[in-house]
Design a protein that fits this description.
alpha+beta; about 725 residues; single chain
């Protein structure tokens, strides 16, 4: 809290689509304790977005979803601010709204954005449509492939909107100094992006904006875009005092940026032997009212709609569509969980149709080193078979069932290590201690610990001697921010390289002290436990402190930048879920999940296991519980009391297997870990449910009501044959 700080709150639209006929703020402005009120007339008439620019700062002329920001107030306390919101009079002219994404793809549907063709950031100009992006990936000739097939399978899968459900809601605070410089405190995980966006909005150089990052209380993709930081600035400028806005939990559900709902149709051409020869995917993603929360206009998960299999002929089409609902953005592995659910459920359906064991079908078609991806990309470090074999061996696959309604299911997925840019400074001080200065944020993943471990390993010093500074954008070197599984790879490489440069200078200094020829020092001197010594005479050593003083400096430091724009490796995962099901109520208990994960090298095994376990718990929630329910465009379950999450009570036993067979591109050959763990969980659970009861649920979440209804419709209320599943290949 800053001296004189005011509390900001936001007034939001009660309509999904309406024209704003009039806004009157006089009563709110006159209310005791209110220091500032702003509407669209008080902020720049610009559109924001990480790539596609379609977001107004405050609604201007019309609103496009229930929860859209109309106005904001700043007052001496929260209660006063809340009362002032009710005193802002807004007159609306309701307009017809588009709620069904299936209607949105039609040529005659209601337009959400009439001026879409004028927006910046569109990959291709489009007009008079709600489809703002049609993304295509292809390999071979799909028509030719289907002509070669013995059997053709086709099905549609649907997934709902899902909230990231982080513990800390979005929060921001802005203070404007007497000289006009701006300081921003933000829960955003990308502080340098906040700086650039705020500077652009305000119209000042980035040097006039200082962003102080905070430890982010969870993210899962939801905190990569500014939310209320601009409102804090304009309220602070009008009031002459710092302003803080913290979104309530209801506001999070009404107006944040959850995972996209999807409708995915898959079609496969298969030989009777089980060989996949042709594949088509058609995906429709409901983006809601705006698309500006995504760093790319589309989602990376669209490319995953061919799975992890060798298929010569593939065609994938992804359609991103506006509706008058809350805007969607990134949620852990954007687009991948939707794709995995569809592809891996479909693989089991194909196996059942061919009367082939689902593990055998996967092994027969699994990608191997040297194969191109389903979309024609060359992948490095493919060890899918090894990962599958490890999961099968450690699970109940192929073993007798414990009872009639026990089920077991398998699913696979992949995800590349993220790309980006990061700089870091590594300093060895005169007393031998080490400092790291990095702009890398930590949204709760333990990133700072991993960066310290990397430096400790390179410099061979105890991690207790290393500190990493949480500094602002004025003091830290640039970092692209957390997200996309990039931190250990990108930020880790910058720390790794800076530590190596420092080590070289330390060795050179020690060489002089140890009377070693300068040109041979790097070869003849080694380091361990904070000491440098001759390999031929380990007892002859100098401390880091002595080495620093030997060059007549108070410290030795190096700054390195690492940037990567193309994926360097691909990570693979297999999940085997074991469930117990009650056919009378439809209740599903996930008893155990065996998780084999291609890790490259685990720099911090405990943190890696935590990421895997957390991803599995989220995946179980995605499979069985989570759904943002709508009622006329409004989220009907906007609290954690109503929105069902997988908690410790529902969490299964988790068997984690970290496979270090294929080296990655990160420091010490590490691969990414943050995004992939959740992806194959939902299809593994869905396949296990099918194994337990003999009916297939293709619409997430798999609720008890859906199971009971499916059993009644199928006539299988007594459950399936209790046979052994999945003989090991």
């Amino acid at each position: 809290m800053l001296p004189g700080m005011l509390y900001g709150m936001v007034k939001r639209s009660p309509h999904a689509h309406a024209r704003i006929a009039r806004i009157n703020t006089q009563r709110a402005e006159a209310f005791p304790g209110v220091k500032a009120v702003i509407t669209a007339r008080d902020v720049p008439d610009i559109l924001l977005g990480l790539r596609l620019r379609d977001l107004p700062i405050l609604a201007r002329g019309q609103v496009r979803f229930i929860g859209e920001k109309i106005a904001a107030v700043a007052a001496v306390d929260e209660e006063t601010a809340r009362e002032a919101l009710d005193l802002i009079d807004v007159e609306y002219e309701p307009l017809p709204s588009l709620m069904d994404v299936k209607e949105g793809v039609k040529g005659d549907s209601i337009l959400v954005h009439e001026k879409l063709h004028t927006y910046g950031g569109l990959p291709q100009p489009v007009k008079n449509t709600n489809i703002f992006l049609h993304e295509t990936h292809a390999k071979g000739d799909a028509a030719q492939g289907f002509a070669q097939a013995d059997r053709v399978f086709e099905h549609t899968f649907t997934t709902p909107e899902v909230h990231q459900a982080y513990m800390e809601t979005h929060a921001a605070m802005v203070d404007i100094a007497a000289d006009g410089s701006i300081t921003v405190w933000s829960s955003d995980k990308v502080p340098f992006r906040v700086r650039s966006l705020m500077a652009e909005i305000i119209g000042v150089p980035i040097t006039r904006v200082r962003v102080i990052p905070s430890f982010v209380g969870g993210d899962f993709g939801g905190k990569g875009m500014i939310f209320d930081e601009p409102l804090c600035y304009y309220l602070a400028r009008k009031a002459g005092r710092p302003v803080k806005i913290v979104m309530s939990r209801q506001e999070e559900f009404l107006a944040a940026s959850p995972r996209h709902a999807s409708i995915i149709r898959l079609k496969a051409g298969v030989k009777t032997s089980g060989e996949l020869v042709a594949w088509e995917a058609n995906a429709i993603y409901d983006s809601g009212a705006y698309a500006g929360y995504k760093p790319q206009v589309g989602l990376g998960g669209t490319k995953k709609l061919g799975g992890t299999y060798r298929i010569p002929h593939v065609r994938i089409d992804g359609y991103y569509v506006y509706t008058h609902t809350l805007p969607c953005g990134h949620c852990r592995a954007p687009g991948d969980p939707q794709a995995s659910f569809a592809v891996e459920s479909f693989m089991d359906m194909i196996a059942a149709g061919l009367k082939i064991d689902p593990l055998q079908l996967r092994q027969q078609n699994a990608l191997e080193e040297g194969d191109l991806s389903p979309t024609g990309e060359p992948w490095k470090g493919i060890n899918l078979r090894e990962v599958m074999d490890a999961a099968v061996k450690a699970s109940g696959w192929g073993k007798p069932k414990s009872n009639r309604h026990y089920g077991i299911g398998i699913a696979c997925a992949e995800r590349p290590t993220g790309t980006g840019e990061s700089s870091a400074v590594v300093i060895v001080n005169g007393d031998g201690s080490v400092n790291i200065i990095s702009g890398s944020s930590d949204p709760g993943t333990g990133a700072r610990t991993v960066l310290c471990q990397i430096a400790a390993e390179v410099l061979k010093v105890p991690i207790e001697q290393i500190t990493i500074n949480l500094v602002d954008t004025d003091s830290a070197p640039y970092d692209q921010g957390a997200g996309g599984g990039r931190t250990t790879f990108v930020a880790g490489q910058s720390v790794f390289r800076a530590a190596q440069e420092v080590k070289k200078e330390l060795v050179a200094s020690a060489g002089k002290l140890l009377k070693c020829p300068p040109e041979q020092a790097q070869d003849l001197i080694d380091v361990r436990d904070g000491f440098l010594f001759l390999k031929s005479a380990p007892a002859n050593k100098v401390s880091y402190s002595q080495a620093v003083k030997g060059v007549k400096k108070s410290q030795i430091m190096a700054e390195e930048t690492f940037a990567c724009s193309e994926m360097e490796d691909t990570c693979f995962a297999t999940r085997i879920a074991e469930v117990q099901l009650d056919p009378e109520s439809g209740y599903v208990e996930v008893k155990r999940v065996t998780a084999a994960h291609d890790i490259g090298f685990a720099i911090n095994p405990a943190a890696a296991q935590g990421q895997i376990e957390g991803g599995i718990v989220q995946g179980v929630g995605f499979a069985l519980l989570e759904e943002m329910q709508r009622d006329g465009g409004k989220v009907a379950n906007p609290t954690l009391a109503d929105y069902k999450l997988c908690t410790s009570r529902e969490a299964p036993e988790i068997v984690t297997l970290m496979i270090e067979g294929a080296p990655g591109a990160g420091p010490f050959h590490a691969k990414s870990i943050g995004e992939l763990p959740t992806c194959p969980v939902a299809p593994a659970v869905a396949n296990a449910v099918y194994d337990a009861i003999g009916v297939r649920i293709t619409d997430l979440p798999i609720t008890g009501e859906k199971i009971v209804k499916a059993l009644k419709e199928s006539g299988l209320s007594a459950g399936p044959r209790g046979v052994e599943k999945g003989a090991r290949a």
